[in-house]
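Retro notes, item 3 of 5
We never archived the inputs for the (6S)-5,6,7,8-tetrahydrofolate complex last cycle. Fixing that now. Sequence and ligand:
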Amino acid sequence: MIIIGERINSTRKPITAALEARDADHILNEARRQWEAGAAYLDVNTAMMRSAEAEVMTWVIELIQDELPEALVAIDSANPAAVEAGFKAHKGRPLLNSINGEKERMDALMPLIREYNPRVIGLTIDDGGISQDADNRYRIGAELIELLLENKISLDDIFVDPLIFPVSAELQAGNVSLAIIRRLQQNYPGVHTVCGLSNISFGLPERKLINQVYMILAMGHGLDAAIIDPLDRRMMASIITTTTLLGQDRVCRNFLKAYRGGEFNLDPVPATAAE
Ligand code: THG
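Structure as it came back at the time:
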């Protein structure tokens, strides 16, 4: 499982404050803990910085890679100037989070993708908006894959995000995304699928439980990357265990290593735990 650490996100209040103050210690602490917990990429979302987005993106990427030279960043921005600034600052290959099927966004980002050769997340949304229909979202994902392949991006560098909606609002939301993941894996073996899971549990109690169980289901359908909080030890334990049960952990090596490392020594959940 390719873990993308979600914590450096300007929609979180402590992060907004740290980014505004250019608080290097705070950002580095978030980066280091996620990296040590096993994140392959650190997502950096600077949306709330508005006109300073490009400058802040550059600052964060240089800060992280000076301290953690092996770490890679998922550049999470809808702003082409911030994306380009991120590509310029980044050493090694970043993950662009994200493109989608909207023509205007594609026209702005494809030249940058060709120039900087990042790995790319494609969201299953286009100029028709967000669809609740599995066939529609699958089709958008398939078209994005075809377009990226035509532009010499290899399948192993493409991550399709089926998008996740609250099951509390739409009964079939969970099933729709699972179906998209399975169909993408069947028709484009080797492509990656990725999602940020937390929308699934919106509007319900016990959100962490719901997110964890949905993660297991999604992995069962072929999900192989996720934007999550790697400091959530229960989520990480369940990902390790699921990977082993799906036959992706030769001689159960990683499971046993995690066991010996104490990664399954989880605090008991209080009976009345809220949220
Ligand atoms: N797909 C893609 N990119 C994405 C998303 C996606 N980027 C943003 C988002 N969704 C994933 N990242 C986050 C980051 C923070 C939170 C949720 C998703 C978040 N944090 C809360 C907080 O800090 O207050 C709650 C944290 C908690 O309860 O643990 O909500 O879907 N491609």
